[in-house]
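Tutorial handout. Part one gives the primary structure; part two gives the three-dimensional structure as tokens.
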Amino acid sequence: MYSIGDLSQLGGVSPRMLRHYHKLGILVPAEVDDATGYRRYDESQLADLLQVLVLKDLGFALTDVKRVVEGGVSPSELRGMLLLRRTEVESELNETNARLERVEAHLTRLESQMNEQSAPDVAVTTKRLPAVHLAVASAISPSFASADVGPVIQPLYPQLFAALDAAGVEIAGPSIAYYDDTADGGIGVHAGFPIDESVTQVPGLEVVDLPEVGLAATAVHHGDMSTVDVDTVDAILDWVHANGFRTTGYSRENYLDCSGELAQWQTEIQFPIAPDPDR
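Part two.
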């Protein structure tokens, strides 16, 4: 049999952790001296300890680890647990990668400013946005951040092209995207193309009249939309605040030229604004 010190060394864990596992019922010693509390483990429990460590490393909760070690989980159920854990890890990885991209974008911008090699200042202008008749496909994003919106809006375009082509409806201008709040706290993501005003129905799509905006602060974003928050949106919002305005809603995006490489894309970002009465 193993003493707690022996098992600690063989398993690469501290005696304190072994006592914790005992308390939780995950790894109960084969013998405990009533007088001294001295714990002794059967040699077969080394395999149990190693299994505990493997499952913990995979990110399983201790309650699930206990069930597995006790033999209360069938191979098929364990497979299901592993598949679920894989999905969770993939989701965590995607979130981490998106966060890394945002960090890299901020870092690149800061380093460019420090080296005095930043791109020319974003040119913000004000204009009226005319009403537009659109065929629209929609989805829901968890937030307005570009890292969340991108994976949601991209699949809408194949849907748009397929439905418009099937209906024989011609596209009358560059794509427009707009956003609104949903009842469950998400962000409604809407992508559409201008169509002739005589068209009132397109199977599989919604036909809407996007209203006129009397005054908007706009700027053209150059390149991949993954950097739009840092490169262009921040510049517009800084301009809005500095010039005594406030935004009155979510932005629109007018995809002026997205025909070539991502680095060559030109997208006009449009924020509805009004004078700020508190300024």
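Part three, for discussion. The mean pLDDT is 90. Helices lie at 4-11, 15-24, 45-57, 62-69, 75-114, 146-153, 156-167, 228-242.
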